[in-house]
Amino acid sequence: MSSPVEDALFGLLAERAPGKSVCPSEVARRVDAEAWRRVLPQVRSAAVGLARAGRLEILRHNKPVDPNAFRGVYRLRLPVPPAVEA
């Protein structure tokens, strides 16, 4: 069973091209357009849990970070498979 935050997050990511990210505030606004700032802690918590489970990447400066030790501005994307060398 998924939460409204997870539904909004994966819905937004599905609308983006592979490898593209979303801002946590976009997710929060999709959940509650009026009181989106109150939803931001739930977005962060869901993102950390999903990143720990390997279902999501948390990015800072467009690079994946440790979900247990990041601070500041971040973005979210689906995991990108490693590049296959030819």
Please give a structural write-up.
With 86 residues, the protein is mostly helical. It has a single domain (4-77), classed as Winged helix-like DNA-binding domain superfamily/Winged helix DNA-binding domain (Arc Repressor Mutant, subunit A). Helix content is 43%, strand content 10%. The chain has helices spanning 4-15, 24-31, 36-52, and strands at 57-60, 63-64, 75-77. Helix 2 (24-31) packs across helix 3. The radius of gyration is 13 Å and the shape is globular.
Under the CATH scheme, the architecture is Orthogonal Bundle
CATH classification class: Mainly Alpha
- Report how far the terminal alpha carbons are from each other: 40 Å
Roughly what percent helix?
A: 40-55%
CATH superfamily: Winged helix-like DNA-binding domain superfamily/Winged helix DNA-binding domain
Strand numbers in spatial order across the main sheet: 2-1-3
| Number of helices, counting only DSSP H or I runs of 4 residues or more | 3
What is the total tally of β strands?
3
Category from helices, strands and their pairing = mainly alpha
- Give the SSE string: HHHEEE
What value does the Rg take, in angstroms? Answer: 13 Å
Could you report the average pLDDT, rounded to the nearest whole number? 93
What count of structural domains? 1
CATH fold type = Arc Repressor Mutant, subunit A
Strand content: 5-15%
What's the story with the biggest beta sheet?
Answer: 3 strands, antiparallel
Question: Could you outline the blueprint of secondary structure elements for this entry?
Answer:
Elements: H1 4-15, H2 24-31, H3 36-52, E1 57-60, E2 63-64, E3 75-77
Antiparallel strand pairs: 1-2, 1-3
Helix pairs in contact: 1-2, 2-3
